[in-house]
Amino acid sequence: MYFQEKAKIMDKEAIKRALRRIAHEIIEKNKGIENIVLVGIRRRGVPLAQRLQRYLKEIEGIDVPVGSLDITLYRDDLNLKLEQPKVGKTDINFSIENKDVILVDDVLYTGRTVRSALDALMDIGRPKTVQLAVLIDRGHRELPIKADYVGKNVPTSRKEQIEVRLEEIDGVDEVIIGEWREE
Amino acid sequence: MWNKKDLIGIKELSKYEIELIIETAVSMKEILKRTIKKVPTLRGRTICTLFYEPSTRTRSSFELAAKYLSADTISIATSTSSVQKGETLLDTVKTIEAMGVDLFIVRHSASGIPYFLAKNIKAGVINAGDGMHEHPTQALLDVFTVFEKKGKIDGLKVSIIGDIFHSRVARSNIYAWNKLGSSVIVCGPPTLIPPYIEDLNVEVTYNLDEAIEDADIIYVLRLQLERQKKGLFPTLREYHMLFGINEERIKKAKKDVLVMHPGPMNRGVEISSEIADSLLSVINEQVTNGVAVRMALLYLMLGGKSDENTV
Amino acid sequence: MRILFKNVTLIFPEKDLEEIGDLYVENGIIRDIGKNLSLDGEVEVIEGKDKVLVPTLVDMHVHLREPGYEWKETIETGSKAAIAGGFTAICCMPNTNPPIDNKETVRFIYEKTNKIGLVRIYPIGTITKGREGKELSEIGDMYMAGAKGFSDDGNCVMNSEVLRCALEYSKMFDVPIIEHPEDINLTTEGSINWGKISTLLGLKGMPWVAEASIVARDVFLASFTKGKLHIAHISCWQSLDMIKWGKEKGVNVTCEVTPHHLVLTEDYVKESLYDTNTKMNPPLRTKEDQEALWEGIKNDIIDVIATDHAPHHIDDKMVEYNLAEFGISGLETAIPLIITYGYYKRKIPLVKLLKKMSYNPAKIMGLPYIPLDKNVPANFTVIDISLEKKVEKEKFFSKGKNTPFDGWALKGWPIMTFVEGRLVYREGKILW
């Protein structure tokens, strides 16, 4: 199997613009950010959350807390995966009680990851609201879940694959659409 | 990644596997700090603790680890099962397996029993201590505790003090530290040192001061009091005089030495209360970490694909 | 019945001789031995030097379990296993229930044997009443009823005075006192050899000194009493050294070794992950001991190879290692093990190996020995030393399936067994 790239749908600038827009939308929707905390879903949601924190600070001058959430232990597909996922560490060293939690992830697809993340979050505390921010929404939801903030809507077929690459993890900022093919 | 149906001894683990368990345990320990100490990972999985020897901490530790991961548990102890009706061990285990158990956690006084069961049943087996052979989860929690305290698990000098001969804890710890690149010295009266122990790549000394000097970790073993009745050493008093860890003896040790004990302790015999309750002692952390390490193992062994789905 | 063996290997253990030749059996009697025999009329011809004819194979150390433990073995199943293993005679140990410590039980064995009529079975009586190591049994009465030797096998005679008396008393019948050498104070709760593997596996050990110290004591007692001593199943080089010393000093001592101590070491307990079929008494020892035992075979310090056939029911073995019974089912694997590991692997001459399973035990026990000779009943075994096949415990005639050798490919199997003129076993089938 190999990954055949078909098109670059976002570059560094496009990602930056999208995240800045989301930052503005968060401020607008919540009428300020005093009660906001950011929680990135490991792994690529975490750097995205950290970037959002920077943009929020640029605009509002306030440091909002950022944490990371590992959802491995909450997945509903552990029995189905070929390889057992490594458990990462959840690192939220602030209270989420009564906070407006912005859950951040790279791609919204079936909605199952977000479902797991919601369960994981509820075990940690009781937020006032949970809002969802994603860089890409590629459709094909299997659960009644909807993003509050979307960087880019990308209609895809199920065969296609979206790859979000970020500086912090992959050394480059870009979003690629492609397909896994047989040799 | 993890591909073992059973965990019987540290001897069979690779360095990588030990590190994977420790790494996973770090994540598990975060859950233990929460108010709601429960994740749904092992929902619908069933774990049986089968203890043919009395045990408080190991059994509760495994059961809590299973419950925190949402597995269902049943527990069988010798006093409450048909073990006493003259049923063979294998019949007992097969009966329970037939009720749909995925994993057995077994403690037994006969060395080798986990191998015997693993050969004869489909469910997984975790050794919770077999005779004088191994007690792998104890060694794993010990390593994890040292990792937390020292930030590393290689290049350390570990001194294990006491009844090495009859100790499964000693054997598992020797294997673990060797694999991780730390050195081990064992110390006790010659009657409690097993033959050919040097072949396991350990140093042997009968002199406690020698064992304590330069040690990063002093690992004190529990002394089974009935050994004295068998004539392996003359009196408890003399044992404490020669091998007991107390404030006087520990002066020879490094300032940042860690004192460990697998419990339960005989205070005033192998370890004095002053030391057991001192800042050097990590005996209570060992207990907490036992739960985290066992959660890590249960996740690794049961959290992946179930057998029915194997391609 | 006319069978002509042509160009086969004939073994004459009593003459330390092996040669290629012909042998003709007619109606159970060896009619001719020589070169280039030719016969008229209808005769079955068995040809080739890989067919080895050896007379009067004796296993002098067998546990038949009857009376008392018939679910483990009976005289009948043990008889079948013996001839399938190539033996024409066996001696059975007295640790039955009741033990063979009286004339009646000795006679019971003979009567049962004669009714079955497959292999010759010679009982060994106990040294002490009830095998308790306290008072001498009626050695004379049992001797006159047919007991050929005396042993408390399974138990060591721990009381030196009792053993001294046994060695003295038995002199008047010229029968061997067969000792199971084990200082039980040193082996309490032990399951395997005391050493590296017992440390690794966390099993209680049985140290060599438990065996060798008793061997030393017994050799001294035999020297002191001028009695006839045979040491059963020796397993360590220290015992061998003591026996060598005794023999050099002219002490009337002989000894035996089992095939499994020659073939296996303590490492196999670990490799087999605590397979209870590796649990035996004396335990499997070290590589060094194993080498010494083979050396003892070569230099004749070891007189006899005997199986210590110890059949057990599966329920006695499918348990915790420390609770499992000691011993293995040995009759049906002894010959192929010795041919494979002694003849092929160690290049020890066949006659040397087979003498320790025929002439020597027959002499020590005072049993009838029928050589390959003209005008004697056919009482020999044909071993096909080029036949290679796997050990299949489920096909054992013995009730005891407790073998560590299941599935092992071995070379050199008995294919015909003649007992006193009758062909009783041929290629997997009991014929009589």
Architecture overview:
The complex is a heterotrimer of chains A (183), B (311) and C (432). Chain A has a single domain (12-74, 86-159), classed as 3-Layer(aba) Sandwich (Rossmann fold). Chain A is built from 4 helices and 8 strands, in the order E-H-E-H-E-E-H-E-E-E-H-E. Chain A has helices at residues 12-30, 45-60, 112-124, 167-170; strands at residues 2-10, 36-41, 66-69, 100-108, 129-137, 149-153, 160-165, 174-181. Chain A is globular. With 311 residues, chain B is an alpha/beta fold. Chain B has 2 domains: 10-134 and 288-309, Rossmann fold (3-Layer(aba) Sandwich); 136-282, Rossmann fold. In chain B, strands 7-6-5-8-9 form a 5-stranded parallel beta sheet. Chain C has 2 domains: 2-53 and 373-430, Urease, subunit C, domain 1 (Roll), CATH 2.30.40; 56-365, Alpha-Beta Barrel (TIM Barrel), CATH 3.20.20.140. Helix content of chain C is 29%, strand content 23%. Chain C is built from 14 helices and 19 strands. Chain C has helices spanning 75-84, 103-116, 139-145, 160-169, 196-201, 208-225, 237-248, 259-263, 267-271, 287-298, 314-317, 334-344, 350-355, 359-365, and strands spanning 2-12, 17-26, 29-34, 44-47, 51-55, 58-62, 89-92, 120-125, 149-151, 177-179, 192-193, 205-206, 229-231, 253-257, 304-305, 380-390, 409-419, 422-426, 429-430. In chain C, a hairpin with a 2-residue loop joins strand 17 (409-419) and strand 18 (422-426). The chains are: A alpha/beta (183), B alpha/beta (311), C alpha/beta (432). Chains in contact: A-B, B-C. The interface between B and C is medium-sized, with 24 and 20 residues.
